Amino acid sequence: MRITEQDLEELSIGAAILGTGGGGDPLIGKLMAQQAIAEYGPVELISVDDLKEDDVVFPVAMMGAPTVFLEKVPAGQEGYAAVKRMERHLGKKVTALCPIECGGMNSMIPFVVAARMGVPVVDADGMGRAFPELQMETFGVLGVPGTPACIADEWGDVVLFETIDNMRLESYARAVTIQMGGYSHLVDYPMNGKQVRDTSVRGTISMGIEIGRAVLAAQRDLRDPVQAVLEATRHSIYGHGIQVFAGKVIDVSRRTTDGFAVGRAQLQGLDEYSGQTMVIDFQNENLIAVVDGHVVASVPDLITLMDPETGIAVTNERVRYGQRMVVIGIPTPEIMRSKAMLNVWGPQQFNLDIPFIPLEEAYPAFYQHVGVPPEKEFRLSAARAR
Amino acid sequence: MSHRLGIDVGGTNTDVVLLNSDNEVVAKTKVAVTTDIVTGIRTAVAQVLDSSGINPAQITHAMLGTTQVTNAIIERSELNDVAIIRLGAPATRAVKPLAGWPEDLRERYAKYSWIVGGGHEFDGREIAPLDEEELQSIAHCVKGNVGAVAVTGVFSPVNTSHEERAARIFREVLGEDIPISLSYQLGSVGLLERENATVLNAAVSNVAKRATLSFQQALVDLDVYADLYLAQNDGTLMSVDYALLYPILTIACGPTNSMRGAAHLTGMANAVVVDVGGTSTDVGVLVNGFPRESFVAVDVGGVRTNFRMPDLYSLGLGGGSLVIEKGDDVTVGPKSVGYRIVQEGRAFGGSTTTFTDVVVALNKAKVGTHEVDVPHELADTAYKMAIQKVAEAVDRMKTSAKPVPLVLVGGGSVLLPNEFEGVSEVHRPENFDVANAIGAAIAQVSGRVDRIFAMDKKSRDEVLEEAKSIAFAEAIRAGADASTMEVVEVEEVPIAYLPGNAVRIKVTVAGTLASYHAESRVNSPDVRADANADY
């Protein structure tokens, strides 16, 4: 699939939905990628199955403060500089790039570098959504070392990291990033084709595009955009998304703790949810959704607030009293739900004292009806058994 | 006794009020907007002079709210060429200026656009030294080719020095006559949106100049030699000199004038204001007497900007909204007969069913000249639907579930009921129909700052004092009397992921017009010197 400027338009809408309330506004990333494609030509998006065993794949991303890159827009060659340094360090030429996360801003960054280098982007990532920290990637949890890693600034300064674990990579990279002006471009978890096949969440970029396309088509044809989004997820490895609530925001509280935006939004139900209250806790991204004391969706499943009229995702920093919202849940791909994975990003890792409850188990009747991807079949039988 | 004129040129009507120095309405009028704008103003002002019998010499101030700048951007008329300068290289080149602009504007403005070495980091460090040599050569290159210059530096809301130095370089080469727009004066953090606002501002500088001159002329024609002020987006005034530098700040003054008028007429400082016109209804919120500001990017003529705009919720519902029955479905608006309601509406003898007719048929208001016959069920459905829309809009604009007072203004507000869910009381002030012109005439002048400050080297009090003194200087520059200035709003927002306790601080101060409050002092040399010292 050749990615054009229009595809990026669609991806920016879908990536905001997969950003689950955080992930950074895809706008600047989209404009960067569009300028790169206008300058160097379209980028090929390839499937994980197209990778050869000895392909050399680098995830590229931005890290740092969204407030800063909205103001100090990147130069455009930072990611390229980091990739070239990594090539020199490994003594290998890169054959494909991939995103670390498909939600928000970072869905776009590989396209900026890929256009310039004339290499494809792999349709897969390490989160299947957005998360706040570097060690929260399937690559790392499944044993790929985060380092060697490179970060670069707009001058072409590059810092190379070799750390004994991925938590250290996260903290050292963040320290250098501040010195670089608040954000940096990053290459980490360098992999061969086989490692990408074994550790990545598949098909996430094309699903982002498909979701965005569904929203735009629904807007054009005056159909319900929320329904269109849910249907667009149906044939992916995620499985059918579900509307879990519709209501009005009646309270939002936020504070900044250790660099994270932490808070809670409360919604009062409307229409079929009338008389019910939903509470959503977030730490940059949405973590759990609770209706009248019952958890209906929890991290790592995706929880997104959407404007019911436009189908556009509303980020946590934009949520305010009085807005009408539809809340949707999208089951996270099964690879994200193993015990090892939940030890990194289950609800307890975000200081929430609840077990992870998959959407398929919270809504068994709905999933019996719409079905689930083959690898999630056991979720239905588990629900049936109860 | 001195008098003031408040003039609001909207989409349909030019409203003019004449106020005495006790802020009482001496005369008011509404005339249809004319194509050239000025003729309508002249007619309306002549009418209030006539009906009041006031000697034009007693009019000391004239305050104008105008849509001229907005129209110029939407219609792409009379825009001038602009040299677009971004200070940020080697950063910021990944997204060039004008990205995301509508094709026609982008083609036109791409010719004179540069990204030059300079700009700052979030903490005030330089990204690169300002490339003065390149700025010199750009200045020589654009000399004679552009009508204005727009300068945007990375993190100029934190450190203004590069933008100011660049302005001096352009000034030296281009002379005094070319307007130079600096981004830190217009928007907050968010480079592309601020740059867009700055370029648009520069592009309308000719429109602003011509509009202001012709307003002045219209008044002079009627022997009115008043000090002229323009109403701006936040519900305050700016002197003509300031408005010529930052004309884009007039772009949403219509609704904000109505809100300021509503505050003045009811004496309420905190309330939801519903302004009902012929085609649309604007819902806004008064906070401490001023319109609440929007904190999301706003599209102007298809361009995404972040300069200060009122937080409004607009509905396609007004007195002239069409009521359409399609099978079992009934819709009210967004299509409207607008000002033609006086010919086409049933209540005026026409044959089109409008929202006004529905209200009249239900006997909920007396408007027009004719009996209205609309089937009761249709009228009832349409009315309930329309009121529901307004109620929802009011609810959206509230910041908490607590009931708030509501003020109804605008010609169409007679159509709305006295009770809304979630509303503690409904106010219908006298002269509600010209609240916008009154809002312009009673307006104060303001000054503000919206920047990121690092708190690691200074105490919180020192930083707040610094922010306040910048806002005070701005207000004086806009024409405020220093002795009347008050802090209207202080907001501190900590910035995530940054060290040095970076905080975004917003301070707004407002005061009475220096020239109005103390006419004798205006011309005294020490006050002038004071005002100039803060440039």
What does this structure look like?
The complex is a heterodimer of chains A (386) and B (535). Chain A is α+β, with helices and mostly antiparallel strands. Chain A contains 14 helices and 18 strands. Chain A has helices at 5-18, 27-40, 66-69, 78-90, 109-117, 138-141, 166-179, 193-199, 204-221, 225-232, 339-345, 359-362, 364-370, 377-385; strands spanning 2-3, 43-46, 56-64, 96-99, 121-122, 124-125, 149-152, 158-161, 183-187, 191-192, 201-202, 242-257, 260-269, 277-283, 285-291, 294-298, 302-306, 324-330. A 7-stranded antiparallel beta sheet of chain A has the order 16-15-14-13-12-18-17. In chain A, strands 3, 4, 7, 8, 9 and 10 form a 6-stranded mixed beta sheet that branches. A 3-stranded mixed beta sheet of chain A has the order 1-2-5. Chain A is globular and about 60 Å long. The mean pLDDT of chain A is 94. Chain B has 535 residues and is of the alpha/beta class. In chain B, helix 1 packs parallel to helix 7 (205-221), helix 4 packs parallel to helix 5 (161-174) and helix 11 (355-361) crosses helix 12 (376-397). Mean pLDDT of chain B is 88; it is low at 517-535. Chain B is globular and about 75 Å long. Chain B contains 17 helices and 23 strands. Chain A binds chain B through residues 28, 31-32, 34-36, 64-68, 70-76, 112, 154-155, 178, 181-182, 248, 250-251, 256, 259-261, 318, 320-324, and chain B through 88-96, 99-100, 119, 121-122, 125, 127, 154-155, 189-192, 296, 395-401, 494-499.
